[in-house]
Amino acid sequence: MRSVAIWNRGVLVPNTPYPMDNQSTLKAKLSVFMFLQYFIWGAWYVSMGTYLANVLKFGGEQIGAAYGAFAIGSLIAPFFVGLIADRYFASQKILGVLGVLGGAVLFALGRMHTFGSFYPTLILYCALFTATLALGNSLSLHHLLDSSRDFPRIKIFSAIGWIAGGVTLSLLKGEYSPVQFYLAGGVSVVFGLFAFSLPHTPPKKVGGNVSVAEVLGLDALALLKKPSFAIFIVCMFLICIPLYFYFVMMGIYLSELQWSGLAGKLSLAQLSDVIFLFLLPLMLKRWGYKKTITLGILAWAIRYFLLAKSLTSADWQAPLIFVAILLHGVCYDFLFIAGQLYANDEANERIRGAVQGFLAFVLWGAGAFVGTLLAGKVLAANELAVPQGALRHDWPHIWMTPAIGAVCVLAVFLVFFREPAKKPASVS
């Protein structure tokens, strides 16, 4: 049997997987773990903008800043994971503590009504939660015997968990209330307690020195000498700017259209995610990275054009919006999952972990921060002086802004990115 190893910020770590006869139990536990983790996220993230705009009466820039809290949390979490968790604590124990603490912070969020108290508390929660994303993936890859086969299958339950979180919130009619934070908080406590039952995963760098550059994956900067990889990174950063318009705006848009059950309907995006996650390996094999990622960027432009068009035709409004929601699988899997695989293929073994860390910093940190900030400003700038019925914003203009941005990114990617040469298959 081939030996298995994982990469942790550029350092090769021998894998010590569960014994073969216990792999089924392990995969069942990890599937439950992923389900609970993304149930929490799906229960509040999409609907938060609706609650902030309609109940707490936050302005557009404040709502954009609130969604940017996730980006700030993503920037904080690597320091926590790299400088503390990887050196002093077993992964399953720190996951348990983070889950329980996160639940307490979510309960507190539901009781806050001013931006001055809500915003810093949300940043604290996002730092706790994003740390569980990194640690959970690391723990899973560490113990799975065949991670390349089993990890994608387990990740399917993250999409199912997100759907369940959104549907449950809709059944509770909690999109316009702090119920979303109480629901997510209760499940977060369950998630934390369950995490203690995961297999023991000792700290990887006990007594070791970890540099800031290593934590952020800056060792990967050497790859930027490759023109195509540099274009790839630039385009990944730029596409994140229009991308976050969807997450900041969509709940608010549908609430102004007076749709009910928003969270449940928006969770259809994750149903699409499950389908296209299965199709992604076939697309990469047939089309390669350039065509697959091109389709992912194009899907974002089409999504926004559909949303801009949806207000101009009453008969086609709902179908256009549902198609835009269901494009999510192409938008996410063909762009970001394919991008992560491309970055992994381009890196050599010494810097593979660093490259993934740097890409995460670009996508979920810097790109998310700029995207959510700009989305908030565009939302505020397009508030109607005189509301048109329930509509308080100029939505066609709002949606055309990220649509044009995505087209510009697509043009840059098509012109300058080159398909990497195929590598010879490795011999096990």
| Strand ordering within the main sheet | 1-2
Supply the number of structural domains.
Answer: 2
User: Mean of the pLDDT scores?
Assistant: 84
Overall form: globular
Structural class: mainly alpha
Termini separation (Å)?
8 Å
Instruction: Name the CATH superfamily classification of the largest domain.
Output: MFS general substrate transporter like domains
Low-confidence runs = 1-16
Radius of gyration: 21 Å
Describe the structure.
Helices cover 73% and strands 4% of the residues. The protein folds into two domains: 1-216, MFS general substrate transporter like domains (Growth Hormone, Chain: A, Up-down Bundle), CATH 1.20.1250.20; 217-420, MFS general substrate transporter like domains (Growth Hormone, Chain: A, Up-down Bundle). It is mainly alpha-helical. The strands form two sheets. The protein has a two-stranded antiparallel sheet with strand order 1-2. A two-stranded antiparallel ribbon has the order 3-4. The longest helix has 42 residues, at 268-309. The termini are close together.
